[in-house]
Every structure is written in C-alpha cells, then in structure tokens.
Specification:
This protein starts with a helix and ends with a helix. It has 26 helices and 21 strands. It is of the alpha+beta class. Helix 3 crosses helix 21, helix 4 runs antiparallel to helix 21 and helix 21 packs across helix 25. It folds into five domains: about 70 residues, no CATH class; about 110 residues, Chitinase A, domain 3 (Roll); about 110 residues, Chitinase A, domain 3; about 90 residues, no CATH class; about 100 residues, Roll (Chitinase A, domain 3). Strand 12 and strand 13 form a beta hairpin. The strands form six sheets. Strands 15, 16, 17, 18 and 19 form a five-stranded antiparallel sheet that branches. Strands 4-3-6-5 form a four-stranded antiparallel sheet.
C-alpha cells in the first residue's frame, strides 16, 4: 500500500512538472510560448541569467518586440517567399546532419580524428581535375592520365619536376611549390585526401584518390609529432606579386627598422597599428586567428616555421620573408594538443560537417529500415526499368512516359514509394549513372534513390523526435523573417525615403553639429629633430608639397615621418584635443611619444552639419524612429498577453 501511494505521489509530481513546463508565458495571434520554450531562449541569450522581476521584465520587453516583428512578417506572408523558404531549407539541411548519422560509427571517427591530430603529415600531390558529375569518358580519361603520371614517377622521374611541368599537376600552386603542401593534420584537407595521406608510408606514393577536385596522387615526404596550436601576432610589410627589386629592398629596410624599434622596447601592438600593411589585423595589435594542430587555419610554411621556432610566449622573430612580404612575428600563446575529453565536442562538430559523416550513413539507414518496418518489392517492380533503359539515358534524353503501372517499390512507415517516383528520379539523376549493363545501372540508381528517400523521411521526423532541433529550427525561421521584415520596413525604408529623412533631419537638426575643426596637414614625426626639419621646410616655401617633404625626411628611415590631411574635428581627434592652434605652421608639440607639426589652412568654428555631412547619424536615428513608430502599430495589430505569474516563476 505504501509503495502504491509513493508511486501515485511520484506520478502526480511528474504531471505537475510537465504541466508547469507547458504553462504559457506569452501568447500572440493564438500562438503560445511555453515556460520551457521561453526559458531555453532566455538562457541562450543571457550568459549570466537573473530571475528577479526587473531582469525578467526587461528581457520580456525585448522578447515582445521580437515576437511582434515575426508575427507581422508571418501576417505579410514572408514565410511563403520562395527565396526565404530556400534559405531556411538550406539551414535545415545543415542543422539536420548530426541527427542523420550512426552515432556509434560517428564516435569511432571522432576518436580517429583525434589520434590523427597527434601527428602532422608533410605531403606533395599532383592533381588531375575532373568534375564530380563528369561523364564516364571524361572520368576515365582523367584516371588514365593520373595513372600515366604515377607510372613515370615509379620509373624514376622526379615528382616535383612532373608536378610543375606542362601536362603535370592541374593545381596552379604547383608552379611555385612543386606540389608541396607542407605539413597538415586532421580536418585541414578534404577527408579522402587526408585518409590517403595518413595511410601512405613516408617516401611512398599513394594510388590515385578521388576527391571533389579530381584525382590526386600523393607523395608522403615526412611525419612528425603535432606541434600544437599557436596564437601569434605579426607586423607585415607587404610586397606585391609584381614588386620590383627596389620595392623589395625598401620593404626589407622598413621591416628591419621596425624590428630595431621592438628591440629597443617599443610596443609591438602600437607598431602594428602604425606600420603593419595587414589591414585586417593592424588595429588589433596584429593578432592573427589561431593556427596549428586541429584548426582550419593554415599559414604559409615559412611563416609557420618561424612562429613555431619561437621558444617562449612573448618572443619576437626577426623579419621573415614570404610571398606576401616581410613579417615580424610575436608568439602570444602556444598550447599543446588538448586532451580527448577537452576536444571531443569540438571534433564532433567538425566530423558532423565533414565528409566523414557520409561513412556512417549506410549503417544508419539499416537502423531506420528496422525502426520504420521497411519492406522492399524491388524484384517484382524493377523489370520494366531494366527492359526499357537504353543508351539515350546517359545523354539525359530517356523518359519513363511508357510506364503504365505504379506499383509500390518499397514501404517505409506508412509511406509508399512507387514506380513513377523512381522513374522521375531516374530522369533527373542520369548524370550519376555510369554506362554498364541495364540491370546494374537500375540496381545502383534504385539503391541511391531508396537511401535518399529514407534519409529524407527521417529528416521530416526530426521536429517530432527531437525538441532541441525543433527549437533551433524555430530560431532560424524567426531570425530569417525578422531580418527580411526589418530590412523592408525599417533599414531600407530609411535609406530610400529621402524626403522622410530630410524632414526628420530638419526636425532634429540641433542634434547634428560640428565642433571646432581644423582643415590641416598633420605631420607625425619620429622625434624632435625630424619635427624641426619638417618645420623648416614648411616655412621655407608656401608651395612645398607633403610628397616633397616625405621624400626628403624619409631618406634615412621609412619611419621618420607620416602625413595626414583632413578636416579634423578637434574634440574627436586625440592628438589635437587641447591644442590651441593658429593659421599656418604651428609650433611642434609632443603627444604619446610622437612629435606633431600641424599646418592649418582653415579654422572652422562650431556650426550645424549639412544633411550630407550628418547622413550616417541621421539615417541611423531615422531608422530608430521608424522602428519605434512601427512597433506601436504592431502592438495594436497583434495583441500580446503575458502571464506574469508564469514569467516570475522562471527561476523556480
């Protein structure tokens, strides 16, 4: 009796928990957001979630605005626009991949990838390009060509010479690297290439391996223990591909001068900001993306060798020459290969997106067949196709119009897959077929169709079977609609509505004011001696140009002088703020280690900005105004009901 009572109480408690999770937090246009759904969204958007009334109310206001915009997008039919449906379908395909693999085999591939990450392979390759959907004739021609090249190497010809010769490798980089790809590890090459490289002994050449690029033969040159992951920064002095010898020498001189400054203790980050030609990293202190073992980022070999050659964090290399120019590299942080447990989740994500995932599909399909009580009638329903296929099929001219029956070829769950559906598949997928006897072609195409349909069937069950997938798809759905409706109703509207923008600007013109400005040439000098030289040259002639001054002053060093010209707003320009300058050449002054000489051509006093001058800020403000007005309309059109009792119970 006691046991029965405990079971009954447990059941009541479970039902209460389920009911509480399904309790409605918000309702709009008849659609409900449950407590569990809202909590999932709340936690995803808050790294440090708080459950007090003020925090929950603040987030709910943001959530209401979000739901109003999505509701309006749906009411306007944005979710039926073909372009947006196609975009969502594309995301769905990507998000579904982890759910459409055999988890046990997938785990084995995760372990294999980690084991490979412990070793780096250095390999060269020769590529013969052939499209994935190439005709059998083109495929055979490519295969014969790669085999011919392999035979020449086996007969004693040099791999590198063949790679860069006419009729050799179709990889254009072979002309400069002889086919040498440097060192790589797991995930840094397409999987079939990686598989061949790791399974070919050092000094040997692989059999031809097919990837989406074509056929490769791979020569494994070396293997070594993985060197770990490197976080580094660089200062780059660029030399273009067509750089003259004089330009290369000038770049080398500049790089060495920067290196000398670093040796004297100047800040690497500051010098990167001032002198690096890598625009993507200069304003970040030269910091590069993580590279090395297990990352998808690869640096050119000379750069990697220099970076990994640095002995400790903080060490700085001498200028290193690559095809891009000269680099000074600073080692910020070196990390050895992390443990399997630490990397497992990251590797799993990569495996799910990689060609490795395809390996697990066959066993996964067998599991689905069992789960959905698959039955097959191929033997009884394929005869017509075998008898009626002819040579026109391989040219895409065959059709199944003479097929009169429509029998079920296989059954999955409650769904039937018929002869006419297979006929349609055959007509659309003739490029995948290879000329052979009819029975083999039909059997191969049938299995491909069957597998595709089984995976497609399972994909359609994902929302029902996996709540987290359903929530993720809803998030992508809402995000796509939100972006599109905001583009139309707010962002683009503000840009296109020139009369509305002008009226808004005129009503709020007091917000858009210039501060005091100098229309000036600013000479940023390395030291006081350079500043004195610049001042003397400026005062010697009213017609002297900046180019002339730079040419004279930077003869001894490329770092002596930097010149900028603009209408500088004083309060917004750090090196001008607090300086009371006059017209003409002003007395030099020092700011943050640099000496400045400023030649003022015009002093512009505070005053209103023209619309053309304030357009960026005014457009942004106008967008905010339009959004506010639009949301007020939407609140009337799509009433929202919030259950505050459920909302405030969120943390309980």
């Amino acid at each position: 009796m006691k046991k029965q009572l405990l079971l009954a109480l447990g059941l009541v408690f479970s039902l209460q928990v389920v009911a509480q999770k399904k309790a409605t937090v918000l309702e709009i246009d008849g659609k409900k957001v449950t407590k569990s759904e809202f909590l999932q969204i709340y936690l995803k958007n808050n790294n440090d979630p708080k459950y007090d009334k003020a925090a929950l109310d603040e987030y709910m206001e943001l959530f209401k605005k979000f739901k109003l915009k999505v509701a309006e997008a749906e009411a306007l039919g944005y979710d039926t626009i073909p372009k947006l449906k196609k975009e969502l379908d594309g995301y769905r395909k990507q998000l579904a991949q982890p759910y459409l693999v055999d988890s046990s085999q997938n785990s084995a591939l995760v372990r294999q990838a980690y084991d490979r990450m412990k070793t780096e392979v250095r390999a060269s390759h020769i590529l013969v390009r052939v499209e994935e959907g190439a005709t059998p004739q083109d495929t055979l021609a490519a295969y014969n060509r790669i085999m011919s090249l392999k035979k020449r190497i086996e007969n004693g010809e040099d791999f590198a010479t063949i790679a860069k010769s006419k009729g050799g490798s179709d990889d254009p980089s072979a002309q400069r690297n002889n086919g040498d790809l440097g060192y790589f590890t797991a995930f840094q090459m397409v999987y079939p290439f990686e598989e061949a490289a790791y399974n070919t002994p050092v000094g040997k050449i692989s059999n031809p391996v097919r990837t989406r690029f074509g056929y490769h033969i791979i020569k494994v040159v070396d293997q070594r223990q993985a060197r770990g992951t490197m976080k580094a920064a660089h200062i780059m002095v660029a030399t273009g591909k067509e750089a003259t010898q004089e330009e290369v020498e000038s770049a080398a001189k500049k790089a060495n001068e920067i290196y000398d400054k670093l040796q004297k203790g100047e800040s690497f980050e500051t010098l990167a900001g001032e002198f690096s030609d890598d625009s993507q990293t200069a304003d970040k202190g030269g910091v590069l993306p993580l590279f090395g073992t297990g990352t998808t980022t690869r640096m050119v070999p000379d750069f990697e060798e220099a970076a990994f050659g640095l002995k400790k964090d903080g060490d700085i290399s001498k200028p290193v020459k690559t095809d891009f120019g000269y680099h000074i590299i600073k080692r910020l942080e070196w990390t050895d290969l992390r443990s399997f447990d630490q990397l497992k989740k990251e590797i799993q994500s990569k495996v799910n997106k990689d060609e490795r995932a395809k390996k697990t599909q066959d066993s996964f399909i067998q599991k689905l067949k069992k789960e959905y009580k698959f039955s097959d009638s191929y033997a009884k329903t394929s005869t017509w196709f075998v008898q009626n296929l002819d040579s026109t099929y391989f040219q895409g001219q065959w059709n199944a119009e003479k097929l009169t029956s429509n029998k079920t070829m296989f059954k999955l769950g409650k769904k039937m897959y018929t002869q006419k559906q297979f006929g349609e598949y055959l007509m659309k997928n003739y490029r995948n077929a290879r000329s052979s006897d009819n029975a083999s072609v039909i059997k191969k195409q049938y299995l491909a169709w069957q597998n595709a349909e089984i995976i497609g069937y399972e994909e359609m069950q994902l929302e029902r079977k996996y709540p987290e997938f359903k929530a993720l798809m809803q998030e992508y759905h809402d995000g796509i609609l939100l972006y599109e409706v905001m583009t139309d109703k707010v962002w683009n509207k503000a840009i296109k509505d020139s009369s509305g923008l002008r009226a808004f600007y005129e009503q709020n013109s007091g917000k858009y004011q210039w501060g005091k400005r100098y229309n000036a040439f600013v000479y940023e000098c390395l030291n006081q001696d350079v500043a004195n030289q610049v001042t003397a040259m400026l005062k010697s002639s009213d017609t002297i140009t900046s180019k002339t001054i730079i040419g004279a002053v930077n003869k001894t060093s490329e770092l002596n002088l930097r010149v900028r010209t603009n209408k500088f707003e004083v309060e917004q320009t750090a090196f001008l703020k607090g300086q009371n300058l006059d017209m003409g050449v002003n007395k030099s002054y020092t700011y943050e280690g640099k000496v400045y000489v400023v030649k003022v051509d015009e002093i512009l006093m505070p005053g209103p900005k023209l619309l053309s001058e304030a357009k960026g800020a005014a457009t942004s403000d106008y967008q905010n105004y339009l959004e506010k007005m639009w949301l007020e309309e939407l609140a009337k059109k799509h009433p929202i009901v919030v259950n505050t009792a459920v909302l405030y119970s969120l943390g309980k």
